[in-house]
Amino acid sequence: MKDKTTFSFLIKYVFKKWFLLATSIICALVTVVGSLYIPILSGHGIDLVIEKGRVDFDSLKLIIFQALIVIAITIVAQLLLSLSNNRLTSSVVYEIRKDIMAKIHKLPISYIDSHKNGDTVSRMIADVETLSDGLLMGFTQVFTGVLTILGTLAFMLVMNWKITLVVVLVTPLSFFVAGFVSKKTYSLFEVQTKERSTQVSFINEMVSGQKVVRAFAKEEDNLNKFVDMNNALKDASLKATFFSSLTNPSTRFVNSLVYAMVAIFGGISIIVTGGLSVGELTIFLSYANQYTKPFNEISGVLTEFQNALACADRIKELLSEKEIEEKEDAKTEKKENFEVIDFKEISFSYVPTQKLIEHFSLEVLRGKRVAIVGPTGCGKTTLINLLMRFYDVNSGEIMMDDENIKDYTRQAYRENFGMVLQETWLRKGSIRYNVTLGQDFSDEEVIEACKKCHAHSFIMRMPNGYDTEITEDGGNLSNGQKQLLCIARVMLMNPPILILDEATSSIDTRTELKVQDAFASLMKGKTSFIVAHRLSTIKNADVILVMKDGNIIEQGNHDELIQKGGFYKELYESQWADDVKNAI
What is each CA distance from 118 to 93, 211, 268, 321, in whole angstroms? Predict the structure, then answer.
């Protein structure tokens, strides 16, 4: 049942390209008719030359002329068939990859957080590539194979129904063999794709984390893990390949049996009853060969197609994941002006059995700078995730004035925000592109934003300035340089709400002081949420929220919290003592 739903999933994509599909079927039909007509001409030709001294050269010339025309038409049809099948396969794969990429952007962040990146990449690249190979073989051989089988049966029935009956009676044996092997190979290829996905995920992690791996001398351990994964993939591949390779020789045996039985019954018919001529027997033998050949090809395709179906099932599984839901009447334009952001009795947990934030309330007026501090795991980043609607609250409401943030689409809502995270994200491309993210800003605006965050000086020292190409994930930049570019990106966007999550963690102290001044200028009139571990960076915040175990335990400005002598004072003095020790 599982492979039936997967097959219907593929058919939907194929039918979207109905013109190419129709072209392929028509060309396959012409190819089959041409290949079936040639044996008839050959048989008639044999009958014209079989008796000594009675060769009809005029009729032979006509047959040869007809054969040349049929061969030419068949060659053209085969060429068009090949082109149509390649175009059809490429189009289907293109649509699937496009849908996967679109799906990734619509999946909730919870899916991204709970699934390995390597697994998702494997489905989009390796699985789609395997599916492409299976589809191409299917389009190329299945169409012509099925039509050849039906065509030869029709021609043989017209010529001699008794011998045709012998062929038909033996045929189910070939289907039985192919069906038995294909069912076994599907489950084995499914295991193979899962093992390959696990290996790709591991490789992705190891390549991206090579510095950490080497720093902790984990090369040998990781190599041993990879060897185990590689062995598991090898075993799965060998089993799948072994069972799939049984199909062809098994069906060939059945096909040879069909050919032999046609020859025996045909020969008896010529000798005993004279019901067939030598030329007609030749046609029958040719048809028997043509009839059985597609079973070999289709059985070979079936094993590959089982592999393709296993990959298609993983692709379908990804595309069937539940997408982010928006209200039907959600507003698509951002809210231009607001006076307050209000957290009303919100509760949230990533795992239902592990409570995190419960009955949390907070009112933030427009233009205020709100700092969020607390120990690791207290809910600081979770609060930002809820504010950005990366996750939705389990209960309660987050309001902008008197409107629930769910009244807006996520895209429209997030247009109000600019965000700088501790983890930087840059893509392969120029420095200018990574600052603007492809939006239409003038060079003067880009340079001004980079000057404000003190990134301009290091950019101009790069080989091509703002046109310098950044390698994947900013590999040719330091962590501090990457963070400055992310800060410049937000300064250029100039949004009404800022979220700074350890935004200067990778920057040296001197540059940090300058960037903090730039931030202070940027935050004027803007609502800002600042997550910080270094408490010295948030002393000027209007409100400091001290969180612990998902709740606000203290609230006030820096001086007020120090005077209270509570948990904030302990955190601040412990950091101050550490700074003194480090200085000494």
Answer: 20, 19, 64, 17
With 50 as the cut, is the pLDDT of residue 583 above it? no
Q: Which amino acid is residue 441, in one-letter code? A: F
pLDDT band at 570 (very low <50, low <70, confident <90, very high): confident
Residues 72 and 178 in one domain: yes
385 touches 346 (CB < 8 A)? no
Specify the CATH number for the domain of residue 465.
Answer: 3.40.50.300
Query: What value does the CA radius of gyration of the chain take, rounded to a whole number of Å?
Result: 36
Residue 326 domain-assigned (yes or no)? no
Percent of the chain exceeding pLDDT 70 equals: 89
Q: Tell me, what DSSP letter sits at residue 323?
A: P
Q: Is residue 334 part of a domain?
A: no
Query: Residue 350 is part of which domain span?
Result: 340-583
Q: Are strands 543-548 and 469-470 parallel, antiparallel or unpaired?
A: unpaired
Does residue 584 surpass a pLDDT of 60?
A: no
Q: How many residues does the chain have?
A: 584
Q: Are residues 460 and 398 in the same domain?
A: yes
As a whole number of angstroms, the distance between CA 3 and CA 225 comes to 32
Is 475 part of any domain?
A: yes
**Predicted local distance difference test score (pLDDT) of residue 76:** 93
Give the count of beta carbons closer than 10 Å to the beta carbon of residue 310.
27
Arithmetic mean of pLDDT over the chain: 80
DSSP string covering 354-420, please?
Answer: B--EEEEEEEEETT-EEEEE-STTSSHHHHHHHHTTSS--SEEEEEETTEEGGGB-HHHHHTTEEEE
What are 403-452's pLDDT values in tens digits? 888 888 888 888 888 888 777 788 888 889 888 887 888 889 889 988 88
In the numeric block, the tokens 């060309």 are attached to 27
| Residues 454-489: tens digit of each pLDDT | 888 888 988 888 898 887 776 778 777 888 888 888
User: What is the count of structural domains for the chain?
Assistant: 2
Which of 319, 352, 377 delimits the end of a domain?
319
Q: DSSP letter at 467?
A: G
Q: Is residue 387 part of a domain?
A: yes
Name the H helices within 216-331. 219-245, 247-268, 278-319
